[in-house]
């Protein structure tokens, strides 16, 4: 810090103090991440990569602000920044993607600092002097960060190209891209019967306290509940694994939801594809599991286990949240309140539209059949039409609410 300029020194201390406030950090991270994601759609389309970016931006900004008021420049790379580089390497992306992230960040940070140095009520040294000092430190920080992350990226890539892990990853990628013939030899190399029924799943860390061994443990628990041998796992990123169960007959996945209670307290989440036969099922069930995973990571009310069959309609309309919420308000607006009784009406109506059987709904919800009838009648009264009309739209709207909550314009 420039000790020969008390005015600039005071400004820097006030700047760092203000910038480290929770809302100020959130503003910075939102601004920088939005700019980066707009330039790198391959990261924007991957929920966990986007989360890794968010954590990297947040941690680096805090570390930089602590450094900028220090007597001497020093660079400390937070672990979250390394996690983003490792995830990009594990996804098989080029180093160029990582460099584009920091080229974009370089421009965005400069624009942000230019804006902030014009704001009051921070003490006022010469604006240009303050901007030049902070920007020079930021530029040096980004240069040092890129140098360290290039090393991190290549170290992770080296791990992937060595040994059995690389062979397995290459075979799995080839099967998914249909560039590898699903022979008996490939099944033997993977330790996974490709001609059996395949159930794809994604298992990931929804909490930063989860360890790799927890993901592997719960993946094994999933296999046992489904009556399958040890699952085939593929390291897809820093916080997620792609997996497959192979069974000689279609597996009974009803018991998988029994894992929900343990998963709730663990920070681990699972999305499931539908069981399908053979190599084609290997690809298709995986695609479904990833689609369910994308919806689950965006949802605010998602359960610990998300089955593609339960969110398929949402997966099919994924891509324009505003249009979906508009449809929700149009179709089931009177059911969108936050009242507990309305929540019960929504839950019962969705269960009925799914099962079409009063007895089954009553058993599933642990209520009397007359209670089911009352709630369904209440739903029809509020909607103004029988549930048999526009049933597909009503079901889709209620499934959206079950995961994302009522749209803000419809809650009361």
From TrEMBL:
Q: Where is the CdaR GGDEF-like domain?
A: 187-295
Protein name (database record): PucR family transcriptional regulator
Instruction: Domain (RsbT co-antagonist protein RsbRD N-terminal): give its ranges.
Output: 33-168
Q: Which InterPro entries match?
A: CdaR-like_regulators, CdaR_GGDEF, PucR_C-HTH_dom, PucR_C-HTH_sf, RsbRD_N_dom
Highest taxon, organism lineage: Bacteria
Query: Record's family?
Result: Belongs to the CdaR family.
The PucR C-terminal helix-turn-helix domain sits at 351-398
